[in-house]
């Protein structure tokens, strides 16, 4: 979905002469990660490279919430106690 389906949606947007495309990369800023650090972010990066090779302008949304839950101690995920809250 991250690459193949979005390519199909992007091609339709280009054909329809849409001016701006918002890719499905609602995540943390993956641009500083090294390839291989995170499989999903690698796929997002692959699609972004493809998107950048087209004539359409793109806007990304880096909200960070999903990755923050995995990286930091939040009420949902307690890494110290290895538990998940409700």
Q: What does this protein structure show overall?
A:
This protein has 86 residues and is mainly alpha-helical. β3 (77-78) and β4 (83-84) form a beta hairpin. The radius of gyration is 16 Å and the shape is elongated. It is built from three helices and four strands, in the order αβαβαββ. The model has no long low-confidence stretch (mean pLDDT 82). It has one domain. A two-stranded parallel sheet has the order 1-2. It has a two-stranded antiparallel ribbon with strand order 3-4.
Task: Name some characteristics of this structure.
86 residues, mainly alpha, two-stranded parallel ribbon, two-stranded antiparallel ribbon, 3 helices, elongated
Poorly predicted sequence stretches spanning 5 or more consecutive residues:
none
Please summarize the sheet with the most strands: 2 strands, parallel
What would you call the structural class? mainly alpha
Proportion of β residues?
5-15%
Record field, number of beta strands: 4
Question: How many helices?
Answer: 3
| Overall pLDDT confidence | 82
Number of folding domains? 1
Concise structural overview:
By secondary structure, the protein is mostly helical. Helix content is 38%, strand content 9%. Strands 1-2 form a two-stranded parallel sheet.
Itemize the secondary structure elements and their pairings.
Layout lengths: L3 H12 L4 E2 L17 H14 L4 E2 L6 H7 L5 E2 L4 E2 L2
Parallel strand pairs: 1-2
Antiparallel strand pairs: 3-4
């Amino acid at each position: 979905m991250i690459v193949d389906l979005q390519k199909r949606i992007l091609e339709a947007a280009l054909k329809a002469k849409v001016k701006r495309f918002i890719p499905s990369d609602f995540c943390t800023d993956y641009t500083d990660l090294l390839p291989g650090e995170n499989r999903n972010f690698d796929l997002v990066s692959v699609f972004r490279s493809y998107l950048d090779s087209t004539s359409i302008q793109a806007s990304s949304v880096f909200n960070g919430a999903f990755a923050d839950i995995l990286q930091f101690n939040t009420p949902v995920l307690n890494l110290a106690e290895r538990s998940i809250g409700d």
